[in-house]
Every structure is written in structure tokens, then in C-alpha cells.
Amino acid sequence: MTTNISPLPPYWLQHIRLDNFVPNDCPTCHLLAGLFSVSGVLVVTTWLLSGRAAVVPLGNWRRLSLCWYSVCGFIHMVIEGWFSLYHKNLLGDQAFLSQLWKEYAKGDSRYILGDNFTVCMETITAWMWGALSLWVVIAFLHQQPFCFVLQLVVSVGQIYGDVLYFLTEYRDGFQHGELGHPLYFWFYFVFMNAWWLVLPIVVMLDSVKHLTYAQSTLDAKTSKVKSKQN
Question: pTM for the full model?
Fold first, then answer.
């Protein structure tokens, strides 16, 4: 007599049963290679585009920041957008992006549990910060006057979401992943998310610098006009 035993989910869970779980048939290396390959193509494409399509020539730092926002647009709208739309079906789905999320969930099982905070946070990130990230690229290429304001808004939003993401798991006692695991904790959970904490802080300071300079220049001109009138 044979018995059908559903495969054991490879997730760090506490007394939670996952029905309809289907293990990934795509190797981890292929999933990660696909993600980083597309990101790399976007970086190269944006770098070349920013050197040719910009209304005003951009420096290397600005072109690198546009590469960052191009990758943000892809990660937010495509990867996180997929989670926002199909988080209820991830466990049994074998689409590439679903398998990518099932792999990442080994470091944070909230993504296959339908955690309310995670779903809401990822939905906002996908459709708000994703779209605005692409707008940042367009704004700098066309030298739109609100480009630094837009960059500041996106950066603050990314920092806020990332801080909440880490703090909520900290307050839960890191119960959704194997604490200290070299791949699932340090690479998936910490390293992959730290990008959206460190780099947004850098570009936020860049925005503050330019907005402060613009405001001080405007104030100086205003004071000169008032002194002439007096």
C-alpha cells in the first residue's frame, strides 16, 4: 500500500501547516542568476542611455544613481508586483517569479504566510515606489525641476518601508527564518534588503544637499531684490 505524503515545506515555521505546497523545480542558482542577470542588463542599459539621452550631460555619480533607480523600478514593479498580485497562489505555483519568492521565503516565511504587513508593504512598494523610481530616471534625463524632490520622496519611502520590515521581524523574535544562516538569513534577509536602506540614505542626502543649495540661492536673490527696493 502506498501513501501520498505532501513534501515538507523548507520554511522556518512554528506549528503551521502549509497545504498545496509544491517544491521548486528550478535550482536556486538559476533563480538567482536570472534575477541578477536582468538587473545587470538594466544597469548597463541605463548607463548607456543616461550618456546619450540626457538633455544635459550627467556626471558619473548621477548616472550611477539612475542605474540604481532603474533596478528599483524593475525589482519593485516586476518582482514585488508579482508578489502583490499572486501572494495567495505562491505555494502551488511554478512560475519563475513564484519560485523566486518561495526561495526567498526560506529566509522570511512571512512571504508564504500571507502576513498582512508584508502584503501591504510590498503592494505600496511595488506600485508607488516602483512607478516613482522610473519617474526619477525620466526626470533627471529631461532635467525636470522637481527631480530632486522626487528622489527625496522615493528615498524616504524606501527607508521607511525597510526600517519597518526589519523592526517588525525583530519584534517577532526573528521567528520566520533561521537566525544566523549564511544564505537564508545573512544573504537573503539582511544583505538583499540592506541595499534599500544604505543607498536610499546616500541619495536622500544628495537630494537634501541640492535642495538646500537651491533654497539658499533663491533666498540670496530675494534678499538682493529687497535691498535694491529699499
Answer: 0.90
Q: What is the 3-state secondary structure (H, E, C) of the chain?
A: CCCCCCCCCCCCCCCCCCCCCCCCCCCHHHHHHHHHHHHHHHHHHHHHHHHHCCCCCCCHHHHHHHHHHHHHHHHHHHHHHHHHHHHHHHHHCCCHHHHHHHHHCCCCCHHHHCCHHHHHHHHHHHHHHHHHHHHHHHHHHCCCCCHHHHHHHHHHHHHHHHHHHHHHHHHCCCCCCCCCCHHHHHHHHHHHHHHHHHHHHHHHHHHHHHHHHHHHHHHHHHHHHHHHHC
Model pLDDT for residues 189-210, shown as the tens digit of each residue: 999 999 999 999 999 999 999 9
